């Protein structure tokens, strides 16, 4: 059971390490808001990640027999990603000449929930992990294995988001203007994922 937890932690940590909407938003909140808002954001993210990890276990049971569902979700993901890309582009234009966030009262907990729900790659990613673990007989569908897997995923996600926040200032120093234009970076990330998903259908 410990191996399921450790592997869930590692895969989640590595999966959320590259720049993405979630960790770049965490970075942005930590730079422009306070620790309380940052922790609220992470809590919102982790709530949905736990549900996504749990759902992915059962989704794996049926994924091979329901390829049409997978294709439908991927196509829907393209639309969502394009909408997010436009949203971040619009936000970048609005904030072009300022760094501080105006909407101080915005609830970052629900921001974390919202962005996690729109993360169309989470369930397929976690399902892939489940399939991998099952192929090596490291996991089955009993309650304890599922619980350890979900906990590992949640803690791995928490730790990488925590590190993004903890070293936000250093990351900003290293990346320079990139963190001053995070909305543009997020626009490019979501647009890139949308293009990548679209190319899967045409190539």
UniProtKB/TrEMBL annotation:
Membrane topology per record: Multi-pass membrane protein
InterPro entries linked to this entry: LeuE-type
Pfam families: LysE
A single GO cellular-component term on record: plasma membrane
Subcellular localization(s) per the UniProt record: Cell membrane
Keyword Nucleus carried by entry: no
Protein name: Glutamate dehydrogenase
UniProt lineage: Bacteria, Pseudomonadati, Bacteroidota, Flavobacteriia, Flavobacteriales
């Amino acid at each position: 059971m410990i191996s399921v937890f450790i592997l869930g932690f590692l895969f989640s940590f590595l999966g959320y390490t590259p720049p993405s909407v979630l960790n770049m938003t965490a970075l942005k909140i930590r730079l422009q808001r306070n620790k309380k808002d940052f922790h609220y954001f992470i809590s919102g993210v982790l709530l949905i990640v736990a549900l996504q990890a749990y759902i992915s276990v059962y989704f794996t049971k049926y994924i091979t027999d329901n390829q049409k569902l997978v294709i439908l979700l991927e196509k829907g993901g393209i639309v969502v990603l394009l909408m997010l890309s436009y949203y971040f582009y619009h936000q970048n234009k609005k904030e072009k000449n300022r760094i501080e966030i105006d909407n101080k009262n915005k609830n970052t907990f629900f921001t974390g929930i919202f962005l996690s729900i729109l993360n169309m790659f989470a369930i397929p990613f976690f399902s892939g992990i489940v399939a991998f673990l099952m192929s090596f007989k490291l996991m089955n569908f009993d309650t304890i294995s599922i619980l350890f897997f979900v906990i590992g995923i949640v803690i791995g996600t928490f730790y990488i988001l925590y590190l993004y926040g903890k070293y936000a200032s250093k990351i900003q120093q290293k990346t320079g203007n990139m963190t001053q234009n995070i909305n543009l970076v997020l626009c490019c990330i979501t647009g890139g994922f949308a293009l990548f998903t679209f190319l899967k259908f045409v190539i």
